[in-house]
Design the sequence.
């Protein structure tokens, strides 16, 4: 009788384990003698020999293919985990119940079936074998934790081929398990290709109308059903409702759109559904809030600039300072309204946040210094002119980041910025070459020459002077002024370094130019739209946090009314 589960292994005094069977029945060990992470059995037996032995055992009746009945480590489950279609077919021919469900891990009920087991390890062949005997509904069952086969697949194998087959069997990619996770939310984190496929299932091209594409959209499982923002609240149009919430892999509550932003799943934003959601947000509330914020910031930038250059005590300076302070107060109000807890802001701090904090600190400080000067108080801080210039540059850069959200300039700004990032890699190499040659020039010139003799020459041979001259060479104004007055032997060495430096530097710069205007440019320009959509959606999600805004409430109501209906899509999705 093979229908028993061996006891745990015996451990001797030296810690060695004996008679190890991993709590598997003999038939289970015969079906799956090698689990990979555990020790292997029957190493000398071939696949054909093992299959023949399995058939002999099943035919003799000494082993029940359905034993144990509820324990997850059954022969059929292991055949599915292993992807062994031959063994599963032998078990079936000898009376194995392919509809069996077992208690998986610590689950409280026996609802984990063969489909879950095959999905767990991405065994598409097993699923196709089961499809020969069972309808699609067989593949749609859930386990004791509410996981369908797609949940199970995404928690383990993440196999795209198996996922496609399950979708063909109409397994719900938007169903929530008991942990408030859906296959869509999980796929955004671990398998974006599947997430894109799921989002595409929520839209369908219908026809073209007057040159515009008409799509059918469903928002269920992505934004709908709307949920109360606070426990115990009712869902109404008073700002108490928000998009359906999910949990990420760390257990934190979030939304589908926030998951896309947090995981930088930018290609998903080019699906028809996400383009429609972004367009609706922009029309209902984001456009007005965006232009209002741009106007306030532009006013602060312009007033700060005028107050910096206006003559002290003039009418223009008074008006500019008053305007700058008023605009600063408006921008401070914007920052306070968007502020979350300090801990959360510091956790998600980015360069734009740093610029905002710098501006909100520097602008009133500058106005205070100007007022002190007007009052006759002599207050001059070290590096004050330089700081004022840096402030104007940083204000302009921040304005550029605001403008990058617009459709006209956004993709272009993203493209230029991405090209700049790519150029930094080559710049790093150029910097190493630059400083290496600067050290060579400095050492060559100063070796054997006194500081007094070099100071008498009509050239600045300090380290910064040499670097400045090298920078002029790179800008196309190369000259050998640096060698005048030096000894003949030193001049030969300097000229050798001079020509070697120019050849090396221009070689690096030419490679940089070729990379930017060939493969790098093509790659970046093809990704400019999703990059721009990513920036735009991230900004609009910040606007959307203002739940009491009438435009936000209108947006949610529009989604609720227009779901499962047709709508014109202005932005064409990526093919």
Sequence:
């Amino acid at each position: 009788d093979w229908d028993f589960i061996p006891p745990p292994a015996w451990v001797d005094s030296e810690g060695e384990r004996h008679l190890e069977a991993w709590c598997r029945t003999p038939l289970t060990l015969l079906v799956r003698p090698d689990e990979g992470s555990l020790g292997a059995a029957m190493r000398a037996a071939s696949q054909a020999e093992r299959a023949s032995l399995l058939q002999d055992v099943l035919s003799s009746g000494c082993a029940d293919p359905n034993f144990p009945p509820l324990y997850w480590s059954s022969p059929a489950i292991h055949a599915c985990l292993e992807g062994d279609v031959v063994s599963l077919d032998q078990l079936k021919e000898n009376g194995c119940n392919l509809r069996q469900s077992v208690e998986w891990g610590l689950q409280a009920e026996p609802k984990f079936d063969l489909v879950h087991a095959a999905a767990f390890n991405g065994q598409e062949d097993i699923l196709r074998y089961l499809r020969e005997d069972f309808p699609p509904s067989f593949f749609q069952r859930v386990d004791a934790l509410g996981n369908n086969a797609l949940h199970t697949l995404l928690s383990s194998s993440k196999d795209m081929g198996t996922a496609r087959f399950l979708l063909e069997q109409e397994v719900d990619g938007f169903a929530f398990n008991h942990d408030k996770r859906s296959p869509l939310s999980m796929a955004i984190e671990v398998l974006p290709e599947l997430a894109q496929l799921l989002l595409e299932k929520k839209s369908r091209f219908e026809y073209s109308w007057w040159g515009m594409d008409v799509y059918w959209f469903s928002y269920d499982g992505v934004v709908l059903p709307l949920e109360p923002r606070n426990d115990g609240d009712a869902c109404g149009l008073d700002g108490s409702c928000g998009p359906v919430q999910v949990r990420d892999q760390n257990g934190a509550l979030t939304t589908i759109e926030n998951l896309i932003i947090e995981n930088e799943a930018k290609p998903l934003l080019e699906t028809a559904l996400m383009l429609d959601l972004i367009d609706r947000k922009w029309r209902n509330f984001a456009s007005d809030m965006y232009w209002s914020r741009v106007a306030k910031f532009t006013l602060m930038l312009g007033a700060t600039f005028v107050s910096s250059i206006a003559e002290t005590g003039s009418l223009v300076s008074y008006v500019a300072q008053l305007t700058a302070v008023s605009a600063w107060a408006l921008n401070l109000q914007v920052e306070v309204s968007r502020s979350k807890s300090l801990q959360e802001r510091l956790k998600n701090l980015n360069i734009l946040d740093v610029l905002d904090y710098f501006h909100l600190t520097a602008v009133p400080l500058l106005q205070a210094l100007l007022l002190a000067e007007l009052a006759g108080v002599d207050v001059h801080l070290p590096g004050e002119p330089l700081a004022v210039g840096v402030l104007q540059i940083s204000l302009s850069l921040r304005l550029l980041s605001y403008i990058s959200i617009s459709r006209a300039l956004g993709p272009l700004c993203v493209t230029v910025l991405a090209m700049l990032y790519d150029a930094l890699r080559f710049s790093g190499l150029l910097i190493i070459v630059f400083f290496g040659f600067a050290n060579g020039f400095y050492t060559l010139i100063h070796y054997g020459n006194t500081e007094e003799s070099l100071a008498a020459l009509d050239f600045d041979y300090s380290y910064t002077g040499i670097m400045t001259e090298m920078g002029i060479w790179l800008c196309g104004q190369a000259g050998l002024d640096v060698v005048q007055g030096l000894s003949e032997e030193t001049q030969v060495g300097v000229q050798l370094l001079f020509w070697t430096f120019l050849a090396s530097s221009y070689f690096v710069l030419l490679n940089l130019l070729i990379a930017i205007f060939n493969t790098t440019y093509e790659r970046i320009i093809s990704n400019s739209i999703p990059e721009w959509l990513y920036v735009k959606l991230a900004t609009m999600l910040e606007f959307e946090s203002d739940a009491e805004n009438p435009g936000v409430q209108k947006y949610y109501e529009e989604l609720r009314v227009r779901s499962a209906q047709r709508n014109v899509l202005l932005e064409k999705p990526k093919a």
